[in-house]
Amino acid sequence: MDCLFCKIAQGQIPSNKLFEDDKILAFYDIDPQAPVHFLVIPKQHVDSAAALGEQDGELLAHVFATIARLCKELGCDNGYRVVTNVGEDGGQSVKHLHFHVLAKRSLAWPPG
């Protein structure tokens, strides 16, 4: 498989890691859109949120608990946004489930 995020998860492509365990990897975005902008990906390939099912509840709970802990550690006291894009019209540029976490600036609503 020629998946950019799979290669990052496997250590074939370097990343600025923020957190890693056996299930997920968090790393800083190479083109940050906020003072804090990192991605969280499952190490196992999943195309997008559209491919998730009930059986993925434990993984998603782990992702969101990790995001909350990392944001607390990074001092994101005024809040943060978690975004996952699905498909071309949704703005998904890498076909591997990933969550953008943005913080430390005011984020407009609705998003672009």
Record the SSE blueprint.
Blueprint: H1 4-9, E1 17-20, E2 24-28, E3 36-42, H2 57-73, E4 80-83, E5 99-103
Antiparallel strand pairs: 1-2, 2-3, 3-5, 4-5
Terminal residue distance = 31 Å
Tell me the major beta sheet. Answer: 5 strands, antiparallel
Q: What name goes with the CATH superfamily?
A: HIT-like
Low-confidence stretches: none
Structural class assignment:
alpha+beta
| Helix run count | 2
**CATH architecture identity:** 2-Layer Sandwich
In short:
The protein is built from two helices and five strands; from the N terminus they run H-E-E-E-H-E-E. The chain has 112 residues and is an alpha+beta fold.
Describe this structure in words.
The model has no long low-confidence stretch (mean pLDDT 96). The chain has 112 residues and is α+β, with helices and mostly antiparallel strands. It has a five-stranded antiparallel beta sheet with strand order 1-2-3-5-4, covered by helices on one side. The protein has a single domain (4-103), classed as 2-Layer Sandwich (HIT family, subunit A), CATH 3.30.428. Helix content is 21%, strand content 22%. It contains two helices and five strands; from the N terminus they run H-E-E-E-H-E-E. InterPro entries: Histidine_triad_CS, Histidine_triad_HIT, HIT-like, HIT-like_sf. A motif (Histidine triad motif) lies at residues 96-100. This is Histidine triad nucleotide-binding protein. Residues 4-112 form the HIT domain.
Using brief descriptors, characterize the structure shown:
112 residues, five-stranded antiparallel sheet, alpha+beta, 2 helices, HIT family, subunit A
